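Example record

Each entry pairs one chain with its bound ligand, adenosine-5'-diphosphate.
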Amino acid sequence: MGGNMKKILAINAGSSTLKFKLFAMPEETVLTEGKVDRIGKPDAEFTIYVNGEKKRESVTSDSAPEAVNIVLDALVNEGIISHLNEIDGVGHRVVHGGEYFKDSTIINQSVVEKIDELSALAPLHNPANLQGILAFREALPNVMNVAVFDTSFHQTMPPESYLYAVPMDWYRKHHVRKYGFHGISHKYVSQRVQQLLEKPEAKVIVCHLGSGASICAVDGEQSVDTSMGFGPLAGLVMGTRSGDIDATIIPYIVKQTGKSLEEVEYELNYKSGFLGVSEHSNDSRDIEEGIEKGHEGCRLAQNLFNRRVVSYIASYHALLNGADAIAFTAGIGENSPQTRSEVIQALSVFGFKLDEEKNQVYGKERLISSEDSSIPIYVIPTDEEIMIARDVIRFV
Ligand code: ADP
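Structure tokens for the complex follow.
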């Protein structure tokens, strides 16, 4: 084995799933990947790829430490590594880094405390991320853990992007500002486009369209604006999230319906978006199928989604004083030629144009614009795990 080869584990710990991917670095070879699903439920399940073959089994996993042990045991038992001490570093995706974390960082006790403190800003995500971190620190006490934040990339935004026009004390005392999310993905995709263009200073509009969705205006290495805000509810229409709405709707609906503030917030997060408008599904595949069958709610939901994407792209094209490229990524961005086509057609005033044959691509990197398009347009499959592994390698 090469003396410089390092084995790095990239971890994404959610409230009920633990996803992992083991890399040999710096080659960036994937040794294995998998996940523990439905942690805390009776039907918890473990999946791991061994020699390219998917293995699945039912497991008992009531907590993050149990899930971590299942993963580590399997790495050894499946012969992927011969001993746990072969793991040189573990990288953790952490959703909220607030204004503290402008870059990835080695995890020590004070970092743990900060991530915990930031749970106030990301109550759905940071506690779960933290549980994963604590479980790995316990299971592998001699291995370096690194936190990679979804917000860090956006810390370069200027105040006129990140401030809301509200009393400044909301920002100074209560940290109300735009943070932005999906930063690991926006960074990966923009760097990949810059590489393809052989132009590291290129200005790129990245459209991360998944069940959560956001758009980012990238200038060289910097995020200059992004569609998500204080939290991940803002911006685009999503699978079940509303995206931007007028804030006065919330007190109005509370008064009209007698629902609690928590219920209304829940409906904005889980009953809105594609699901709320279509009254059919949160999944873009179902929406597309519905459109084909003439389901009006599905057509309407897709139209709202497209309109919002189009207006963010148009606005960021102006903000960047002319982007050099547009990139589509994540579930919908990578796999829906229909969405890409409708969005780009609505932007034809800027000379953006797809080659509809090239646009028939699913989950693969490809230039999809026509030769006479004013700027190139790409599909770039995102890879947050490799970004995490690369950041760990910086510290190991
Ligand atoms: P997240 O990571 O935020 O959960 P994803 O990036 O996996 O989301 O995106 C999920 C969305 O992508 C869903 O709306 C799903 O319908 C859509 N999607 C995934 N695969 C395909 C596909 N092959 N064709 C069309 N849409 C797809």
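The first helix runs from residue 64 to 77.
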